[in-house]
Amino acid sequence: MGERRALVIGAPNDRFGRLTFLPEVVRDLHRVVRDPQRGGCQPALPDGRDLLLGAAATHRKIVAAIKDAMAAANRDQATLFVYFCGHGVRKAEDFFLIGSDTRPDDVDLDTAFGLGYRLTGLLQSHPTLDGVMFLLDACHSGEVVANPVHGLFSAAMQGRIEFLTATRAEQVASKGCFSRSLTQLLTVGSPRTADPELLAYREHARLSQVPPAPSECRGMAKAVHLSLNGTSDAGLWLGRNPAADLRPALHGTTGADLVAQLTRDWQRRLGPLGSLATLLSSEISPIAITGGPATGKSALLAGLGRRSADDWGMGLDALVSVRPGGTLVQLADELADQLSRTEAYRSGKQRWQQATPITDQDAAPEFQRLITGPLAHLRPGDRIRIGIDAADQLDTVQRRRLIDAAADLPQVILLLTGRRLDEVSPTSRVELPDTDPDAVARLLVTLIDEPETRCQVTTLAGGEWLLSRILAGLWRAGQLRPGTAQLNLTDLPAAFDAAIATAQTAALQAPIDDVLRLLAAAPTGTWMPLNVLTAILERHAARCSATAVHPQLDATAVWARDALVALGELVARAEPGESTERLGPAHDKIATHLANRYGQAVVAASHSTIAEVLIQIIASDEAPVHVRAYATAHLSEHLHAAGRTPDALKHVPKLSTPADNLALWQVWHDRLAYQGENHLDVLTVRSSIAFWTGEVGDAAEALRLAEQLLPDQVRVLGPDHPEVLTTRHNVAFRVGEVGDAAGALRLLEQLLLDRVRVLGPDHPEVLMTRNNVAFWTGQAGDAAGALQLFEQL
């Protein structure tokens, strides 16, 4: 799953007209399609071939090559791209790709490749093909989608099949201009979008405008794109986009995904941008962009991640988003990855390392070591701007630490978004209105050209900025169809349900409902790896109808992707079509709708199912790095959401420094404090806070916390509970650390008697206690007694 494969065919045939340009054009296209940094495709044929050119491109070899390529892609659940440059003829209810040996007076299924007929059979016999796109540079190639052979549409309903053709049905292709423009697009990219990939369903209309084009290509026909099942698959991207409208530091990062997702179809909102520009010019920090849900806060910030933001002097050097339950530790690595691409940060990091002893660097919290330390040592004149989306997802303590840190970094401007950020001065906030009808109306004029539909979508969006974009996307994807009852809607949940119903029709074989149940428990945004989703579906044997026909094939991964594509704008996808794909609900309101649709019990069960798979992933040595990272970071969150808080606390990740661990456990305390200080879960959290307080070097405070905790534990758990005995051990140890070795020894000797009684003389904790008794005997001044105890131990 996730491999992209290409087959490039150049079939000249002088009987149908000379194509003198063809060899050069096809070789250029082949080169860029195979370039890892451009088309990113591997050879489609099992023997490593991927080019069929010239006299060798006979009709039999074309048939065999396409058949073998589809069979191999089906076997390996790969994505296939077939490029054809040559002659095409519409005849006898089919569109034929002409081989180098085909005769004009003898065009049929035995002498040419009948695209519709053969594809219908191939699609039916290859159900685990992970998407296929045919790119046809031939006269009248639009015929294949304008008048498809009977059965092709129904066959394509079982998979993601797309066509990109050089012309409409009635038009002629000219001098390989379609292939030339495609080569040029893959080479230079498209600066009109922030998408890191070039998407056929967005770029096809621009092919005729891609410069530089040969003079004879002026006025070339506009390319036609069609997905046979009505979906638009971001995973079937043409190539990488080297010219994406992104700030350089964001390329290839989660920040790039954020900008691409949030600024697609984005328009500048001059009022809010003007207010933001004023604050930025005054170098105030932090700056907050606040407002209710779906007001466009994130889109406004993400717009500053575009390269074009430099034109207004407002570009960001780093952009990250806080996931639900996120911490500063989780932000530190992402920010450092982006900031390390700027000379200012690299210089500051070097200066901080030179000025800070190694021991202090190692002990520093990760956010200080990677972010605030280096940024506090910037060179005079250096400036850095950092955007943090959804900062209100941080708990109060973490958010306060972040804002306080920003106040100590005069050369750094921190921009935050959140529904409420009261810690930021009102004079440093840009407040977005709950609704912006005028701006939404202007946006929808550019997105929807059908007046009646635009009016209904405008009403449904209620003036909400982001929702208008989502609804427009649903309409363009065919999930809110004009002229049907689906658009006679009065509320947003009805619109989402209509989109889901359309998805279920568009991908009959896909486990739409199973995927939606899991998405209801996934974090909003592109966090959950596709691998996790497919592992869950496989675990529950979520097989589709085709499994009965092909029981030897496990198509779960392919059908999961079918479901995501069919759900369209309801799902956010990062790195679509690749093995590292990540996903989640596209918006909080979509996540809320899914939770309401299935109910609390189902969502909790989904969280529990996800957690069980994450436990297996953590225990495995074979899971990809990004999957293990998600499992480690999110397991405790899913367990907590499943109502399994005691299990969640057992799986709270251990971070790299004591300070970071202390901060994380303080987050859990804030989260669970409503249960009362004597609740079992809160007692567990208090114990960890006391422990990590001591580990950061504050033995006196750790002792105070442990002494407060102990009587509560005894009252709730009983005097012989293992947690009580552990706290007694911690109290004794901290007593010794604050300078009372004799007191520590006395407490440990009492503890040893109780642990032997409760656990038995050979229990590991008993042996550890004996070791500590011996140690503190020595610390109390009795070296001989300590030696004797160690020797007995």
Explain this structure.
A hairpin with a 7-residue loop joins strand 19 (571-574) and strand 20 (582-585). It is elongated, with a radius of gyration of 31 Å. Helices cover 49% and strands 11% of the residues. It folds into four domains: 4-239, Rossmann fold, CATH 3.40.50; 248-431, Rossmann fold; 507-643, Arc Repressor Mutant, subunit A, CATH 1.10.10; 650-792, Serine Threonine Protein Phosphatase 5, Tetratricopeptide repeat (Alpha Horseshoe). The longest helix has 20 residues, at 600-619. The relative contact order is 0.06. The strands form five sheets. Strands 1, 2, 3, 4, 8, 9 and 11 form a seven-stranded mixed sheet that branches. Helix 17 (451-461) packs antiparallel against helix 18 and helix 19 (492-506) packs across helix 22 (556-567). It is an alpha/beta fold and 793 residues long. InterPro entries: Pept_C14_caspase (IPR011600), TPR-like_helical_dom_sf (IPR011990). It comes from Geodermatophilus obscurus.
